[in-house]
Amino acid sequence: MSASVRSPHRLITYLAFVITLFFVLAVSASAHSADKKVIKALYIPLADHYASLVAYERYRKEMQFADYQLEQMKNWDLLRAYFQSGEVDMAYVMSPLAMDMFSEKPHFRWIGLMHRDGSALAINDLLNEQVKLAAVRHERKPDDKVAKALKQAYESTGRATEIGMPHLLATHTVVLYRYLKEHGVTMSLTPNSGTQVLAIAVAPPKSPSFIKSKSNRAQAAAFEQSLPWADVVETGGFGHVAWYSKDVMPWEHGHVECIALATDAAIKDKRKAVNEVMAYIHKAGEDIEVARAQGGEALEQIVNIVRKHIPAHTREAIIASLDPDLRVINYQNLDVDKPGLKLIMDLAVEGGIIKNAIDIEDFADEGFSRNGFNGLSQAQLSR
User: Fold this and answer.
1) What is the pLDDT of residues 255-292, one digit of tens each?
2) What does the alpha-carbon distance between residue 28 and residue 358 come to, in Å, rounded to a whole number?
3) CA-to-CA distance for 1 and 58, rounded, in angstroms?
4) 346 domain residue, yes or no
5) What is the pLDDT of residue 4?
6) How confident is the model over 17-76, as pLDDT tens digits?
7) pTM value > 0.85
8) Of 217, 248, 279, which residue constitutes the final position of a domain?
9) Keywords on this record (predicted)?
10) DSSP code of 143?
């Protein structure tokens, strides 16, 4: 047979082999994908939840059991309603809000932390005229200066100074309550209570404009928000970071703040997938810690991941939030911390922030610890 005859035959055979191989690989990939369980998680655009974004961008394709999906929510009330509907698997929630949700409908468990520490009090220029904050941030501590300025504002105007919280059922409210209590300043969550401070709900992205509008009317104002919003007002030149929550609530490894929740249904029917997601959140937290220590390109990669999902967070504010010297938020030791949560709960009940204490033993599921997932090898976790 001539070469001119053999060549088309070989070409046809080769093409048939390639097409068959492609089909087999596609079927295999489809079958593998079909084996994965959808894990849909809700988050809010805050530094609190950066580890979830890093886990999603870097590791979702490596996950063997989880089809990891993220949905950003505009505010905490929408997140609460959506999660309580039972239509999603996981949510990342501030601890007092999570406890209140559990009291309302205990269809989920607490399976880990998203970070530790991570919020700050920002004040406007009117308050800082009296406080006179140190120029260097690491020298700013929760002493009595801000408390005295708030007392003075009340004596001068007869009105409570409004301080913005991301939600009234926030860890931030607990931190502020503790600070004010220690310095003899009264706080209420409801207007016309005769207190020196009124905590109000201000959505995190709106907190800079809240400070601006109060300053334009020559009114004292502050907010206690998650990073990077306090850094945004300082880098933007219209407010000042007064102190960080880590100094108000000192705790081994950092105080409890946002926690990871998973529904009972997801834990029962998708346990390996939920476990895998949490394992990679731990890994992502380590990535952030390494990046902030190294700086340079490693940190820029984290910044790019964050800004892909949350463009409102400026590069400057993200880098300031992850300052390795200040360490005002950290993403280590993310296992369930029962004593740490009890500290928050007891203060929240005492301050009237949540109505009732919960049974932490019932609330917590410690089966999702950093070392508790056998489906993910130590080599993968330490890579």
Assistant:
1) 999 999 999 999 999 999 999 999 999 999 999 999 99
2) 47
3) 54
4) yes
5) 46
6) 556 555 544 444 444 455 899 999 999 999 999 999 999 999 999 999 999 999 999 999
7) yes
8) 248
9) Signal
10) -
Domain that holds residue 130: 119-248
Closest alpha carbon to 131 in 146, 120, 121? 146
Kindly give the parts of the chain with pLDDT less than 50.
1-5, 24-32, 375, 377-383
| Residue 80, domain member (yes or no) | yes
pLDDT value for 319 = 93
List the structure tokens of 332: 């280590």
Based on the fold, state whether residues 77 and 123 are members of the same structural domain: no
User: Residue 25: inside a domain, yes or no?
Assistant: no
Q: How far apart are CA 242 and CA 222, in angstroms?
A: 9
* Phi-psi region at 141: left, alpha or beta (left = phi > 0; alpha = psi -120 to 50): beta
Candidates 45, 44, 41; CA nearest to 311 is 45
Cα dihedral across residues 140, 142, 144, 146: positive or negative = positive
Do 240 and 271 sit in the same domain of this protein?
no
C-alpha distances (whole Å) from 273 to each of 31, 63, 130 are 16, 8, 53
Tokens of 164: 């913005």
**pLDDT at residue number 381:** 45
Smallest CA-to-CA distance from 114 within 244, 227, 265 is with 227
